[in-house]
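Moderator note: this is an archived Q&A kept for reference. The question asked for a predicted structure of one protein chain; the sequence and the answer are reproduced below.
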Amino acid sequence: SHVSVIMSLQTLFSPVLAEGLDARIGFRFGEISYVTTIRDGRLDVDRTKPQDCDVEFIGTPSEVAAVIHGGAPLETIEIEGDISLAKRFTTLFPPPAKNWLKIEADAPIP
């Protein structure tokens, strides 16, 4: 859903990777739109129609998620605006580190 895509952006956003970036990124999921603003290592979200955005991602929630999180080509969706910014934007959301639980063979079971 569009909500889960936006929540994933908020959850996985890396301030370190966004260092020095000041941009407005629009999202259009059919009739539902959002604008994210990246500034000072923060990502803020507003549910509003994209205006004065540097780039816009347009497609279904699953298509946009596939581009941002799944490595699908940008051509999978419609992009309006700064293509190089769109490419950089997709790098700002690294997957969470995997936490592997190591169990010792002779460890007591709690």
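Archived answer notes: The longest strand covers residues 32-39.
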